[in-house]
Write a structure and sequence with these properties.
Layout: H1 7-11, E1 20-24, H2 28-42, E2 45-49, H3 52-61, E3 68-71, H4 82-89, E4 94-98, H5 103-110, E5 116-119, H6 125-138, E6 143-147, H7 151-163, E7 167-171, H8 174-182, E8 189-193, H9 201-212, E9 219-223, H10 228-236, E10 241-244, H11 249-274, E11 282-283, H12 284-300, E12 305-312, H13 315-322, H14 324-342, E13 347-352, E14 355-360, H15 365-381, E15 384-386, E16 389-391, E17 395-402, H16 408-424, E18 430-432, H17 433-441
Parallel strand pairs: 1-2, 1-3, 3-4, 4-5, 6-7, 6-8, 8-9, 9-10, 11-13, 17-18
Antiparallel strand pairs: 12-14, 12-17, 13-14, 15-16
């Protein structure tokens, strides 16, 4: 049996290293493969027990709390789910990994409020289990946007998704869902009924793609219509899956889980492609890909926004004096400080060399100027220790207001012009249209 490690899984090693898992499995082959897979791909510490007696002893010891248990239903000394019952009674969340599975077993398991159930002998069952454990340990970071005009159906579907440890955002019509996406709601996966009151399923996919581009969340369609062509049209429009109603809960859970796991792996690859190799913030490519969409969203909401370009003053002189290694330390320091202040609300990237860009989400000229002043003062006050020597730096910032839809290059060019003015005026300052107006007024 061979475990495949994706880039996303390799990057998740540090993510769960503080977690401890209880593996309850009596088959040696599965126990070995699962322990290796969970530890090597997720970084979690795994304690293995092959019997209910061993589980009781481990939980009684209480040396460290378990974040999650993976439990086989049938153990040598507990053939009738007694192991699962004991784990749940001990307040340890559980995922079932079993070879014995039928409709009766499924109903019995779902009634016990487990986080999921993976059948051992199905294709890629270990990979699916690792993805389910990752999702459970991540605890709600996978967010599903659920769109269904029928309130009762929407409530039932939301309950199914939450049972899989998804965070759920609900909408009754396509327009409401699009407003949530425009407002910046972090959505990983969209599940929608195709019979919406204000838009077709295919039309919704087209609108989402036009607004979110290549980073658009994948869309799964649901329908109780018998027309087989509806599924074909939905998939041709770009949907990732289509599920006919009524469906078996296990099928729905498996399909949604697989789509979510695939999306997480894709997001991990995109993060790698979007990251600057040195500073670990976004790179120029991501800034130019994501920026136009964020501007469009702000303007659609009727908000003004702003773009800033900042540059480390006298950086070439610093490199020539201290060397490129010290220059790299300074760049990393500046990136960390900027990221701490800018956070996730606005788009921050290294544009190249010692130049950084910030696209503000919904800040008008005055608020963006005040924000940039705070950045400038924070970096001026900060100290950088390199080779036992304390260095100080300053930055210059050019800030341009965005009021109408134009080519993204035009916004950046305007900010560059203000940056040139800031440097020409003596550096260590913010220059914008407001600055010029203040000078003229005085």
């Amino acid at each position: 049996m061979r475990l495949r490690r994706t880039s996303g899984q390799a990057n998740s090693v540090l993510k769960h290293r503080d977690k401890r898992l209880l593996l309850v499995e009596d088959t040696r082959m599965f126990a070995t493969a699962l322990k290796y897979g969970l530890e090597s791909t997720l970084g979690a510490r795994v304690t293995h027990c092959g019997t209910l007696e061993a589980v009781k002893a481990e939980l009684a010891a209480g040396s460290d709390e378990f974040s999650l248990a993976v439990v086989d239903l049938n153990l040598p000394d507990a053939p009738n789910c007694e192991g699962l019952d004991f784990v749940l009674a001990s307040n340890v969340p559980a995922i079932v990994f079993t070879g014995a599975f039928n409709d009766g077993t499924r109903e019995q398991i779902l009634g016990k409020d487990v986080l999921g159930c993976i059948v051992k002998h199905e294709p890629q069952s270990i990979e699916r289990l690792i993805a389910a454990v990752d999702r459970a340990l991540t605890d709600g970071r996978t967010t599903v946007l659920l769109i269904d005009p029928n309130k009762a159906s929407r409530c039932d579907l939301a309950e199914l998704l939450r049972r899989q440890r998804f965070s759920v955002v609900e909408a009754s019509v396509a327009g409401e869902a699009l407003r949530l996406l425009d407002a910046g709601e972090a959505i990983d996966l969209i599940v929608t009924d195709t019979d919406l009151n204000d838009m077709t399923g295919a039309g919704l996919i087209a609108e989402i793609r036009s607004r979110q581009g290549e980073e658009a969340a994948p869309v799964i369609g649901l329908s109780d219509h018998g027309d087989a062509r509806l599924a074909a049209r939905f998939l041709e429009a770009g949907g990732v899956d289509f599920i006919h109603k009524p469906f078996v809960e296990a099928e729905f859970s498996a399909r949604v889980g697989q789509a979510a796991a695939m999306q997480k792996r894709l997001q991990a690859l995109r993060r790698l492609a979007a990251s600057d190799y040195l500073t670990n913030i976004y790179n120029r490519r991501h800034f130019f890909l994501t920026g136009p969409r964020l501007v469009e969203q702000c303007l659609r909401r009727g908000e003004r926004t702003s773009i800033a370009v900042l540059d480390i003053d006298h950086f070439k002189r610093l490199n020539d004096t201290y060397g490129h290694e010290i220059g790299d330390i300074v760049l990393k320091h500046v990136a960390r400080r900027l990221k701490a202040i800018v956070g996730e609300e606005h788009l921050l990237a290294r544009l190249g060399g010692e130049e950084f860009g910030i696209l503000f989400n919904g800040l008008d000229a005055r608020r963006a100027y005040d924000f940039c002043e705070r950045l400038r003062l924070e970096l001026e006050r900060s100290k950088i220790v390199a080779d036992d020597e304390e260095l100080t730096i300053t930055i210059s910032i050019g800030l341009a207001t965005i009021e109408a839809q134009e080519a993204f290059d035009n916004y950046l060019h305007a900010a560059d012009q203000f940056l040139y003015m800031a440097k020409h005026a003596g550096r260590n300052r913010v220059m914008s249209e407001l600055t010029l107006l203040d000078v003229l007024a005085s």
